[in-house]
Amino acid sequence: MNGFLSFSCVLAAVTAVGASQGETFLRNGGFESVDGGVLEGWSSLRPPLRVDKSSGRNGGSALAFCAESKPEHTVLSQTFPVMPGRSYRASLWAKTENLTGGRAMVCIEWYNEAGRWAGGVYSQGIGGTEDWTEINAVASRLPETAKTFRVGVYVERGGCGRAWFDDVSLTPVETPVVAGLYSSAYRNQAAVGDVTFFADLNLASGGISPDQVKAIFSLPFANGRKTVVADAISNNWASVTVDASKLKTGTAGFRLMDSSGRRFNDTAIRFERFEGENRKGVRVDRHNRLLVDGKPFFPVGMYFGKVNSEDLEVYSKGSFNCLMPYARITREQLDMCADRGLKAFCNIKDYYTFTRRGRPTREENDEAVRKIAEELKGHPALLGWYLNDEIPPAHIDELKERYELMKTLDPDRPTWTMLYQVRQMREYLPSFDICGSDPYPHDDWKRWNDAYTWPRIQIADTFRSRPVWQAIQAHDSAAYKTGSREELMKTHPTGEAEVRSLAWQALTAGANGFFFYSFFDLKKMDWKTPFKESFGGVCRVAEELRRYEHVFLSTDPVEAVADSPHIGVRGWRYGGKVYLAISNQRHSRTHGSVSVDVPFSAAETLLGDRPLKGLEFDFAPFGISLVRLMPSAAANSSDKVDGRRK
Question: Is the distance from CB of 500 to CB of 622 less than 8 angstroms?
Answer without folding.
Answer: yes
